[in-house]
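Thread: Newbie trying to understand structure tokens

Hi all, I'm a second-year student working on a class project, and my supervisor (Dr. K.) asked me to get a predicted structure for one chain before our next meeting. I've only ever worked with sequences, so writing a 3D structure as a token string is new to me. If someone could post the tokens and maybe explain what I'm looking at, I'd be very grateful. Here's the chain:
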Amino acid sequence: MPTQIHPTAVIHPSAQLGEGCQVGPHAVIDGNVIVGPHCQVGPGAYLTGHTQLGSGNRIHAGAVLGDAPQDFKYAGQPTRLRIGNDNVFREHVTVHRSNRLDEDTVLGDGNFLMAGSHVGHNCVIGNHNVLANGSLLGGHVVLQDRAFISGNCLVHQFCRIGRLALMQGGSGISLDLPPFTLARDNNTLCGLNRVGLRRAGISAEDRRALQRLYHLLFRSVLPRAERLRQAADDFPQAVCQEMITFAAASTRGLCADPGRWSGSGSDEEASSD
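---
Reply by user tm_fold:
Sure, no problem. This is what the structure looks like when written as tokens:
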């Protein structure tokens, strides 16, 4: 399909559009934007900043990509937003560029950002993630691959969310969410993302090992260092080692399963912000 640009679209002469792009009415594309081939830019969308998109991205009505970070420290530097291929940005999604020149806001491939969701500055988003309607990622969040962030979820800045994790609707985290787990309420784990694991082709044997590891890491009363040491010794499976490595690297503290003790919804060794 040839490139199609609606006559009411405003495209800066310096902007670069790849082959086969479609730009809808009243869309605005600023001069430092690079749009890869076969992208669709919907009505009233705004692409600005030093923003680069790969191929096959679909940007729906009113979405804003690459605007300035919502950070009082930001001083107008030409910071960047980099987006991969085949992502979907539904109505009124906002994705902000980074707040410093030595870091970019980055999105990988195949992500689906539903209406009204937000990705803050300096976030690093992997591949094939889903951000449902109204979900909000604060600045510097790291979201690995194939996670599902349900509607109206809140993710505090600098949190990490592991591969195939799932946040239930309306939940919030200010701590790290380990891979393969489910989050509910505030900083609370409620087991493994069993449906996601099966759909991802994780074997029944590995799922059983993950279940045993989950009980050790998140329901044991052992000290954190002892839990991690025992886990490293007893669970050689690759998926288990992925969870162990994620947990060991956490500096914010981990979301926790309150079944370990009464009343608390966060890891007993995590500092609050």
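A couple of things are worth pointing out once you decode it. The first strand starts at residue 4 and ends at 5. DSSP finds four helices and 28 strands in the chain. Feel free to ask follow-ups in this thread.
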